[in-house]
Design brief:
It comes from Flavobacterium azizsancarii. The protein has one domain: Nuclear Transport Factor 2, Chain: A, CATH 3.10.450. It has 3 helices and 6 strands; from the N terminus they run ααββαββββ. β1 and β2 form a beta hairpin. The longest helix is centred in the first third of the chain and has 13 residues.
Length: 115
């Protein structure tokens, strides 16, 4: 299946919001590298899997306001809501810059702030 990078990200996010973390991870390279600017860096699919198990107790809810693609990059700007273990919801604004390699998400640089 030959999909463009925007479509790949949209499919990955659809899996994530459905609670299918493994489905999301199938769109990532094994050596995926995620940097949350000013916070933490995750190296490798297993580190991302552990992060998702801890942070996505319930599937995150996204509102994508802009999705911009050029060459091997896709930038997503929007809002995300996450619930903690007590059911309290926190809302964030985000700007994710994804780098793609051979049709998979290989790197993320995420700028996330609580709103």
């Amino acid at each position: 299946m030959d999909l463009n990078n925007k479509a790949i990200l949209e499919m990955a996010n659809k899996a994530l919001t459905a609670g299918n973390n493994e489905g999301f991870l199938s769109f990532c390279t094994d050596d995926t590298h995620w940097t949350f600017v000013g916070d933490k860096t995750l190296k490798g699919k297993e580190a991302v899997r552990e992060y998702m198990a801890k942070e996505y107790l319930e599937p995150p809810q996204f509102i994508v306001e802009n999705l911009i693609a050029e060459n091997d990059f896709v930038t997503a700007v929007g809002k995300i809501s996450l619930k903690d273990e007590n059911g309290n919801e926190t809302h964030y604004s985000y700007c994710d810059v994804w780098h793609f390699r051979e049709g998979k998400m290989s790197e993320l640089k995420a700028f996330v702030i609580s709103i």
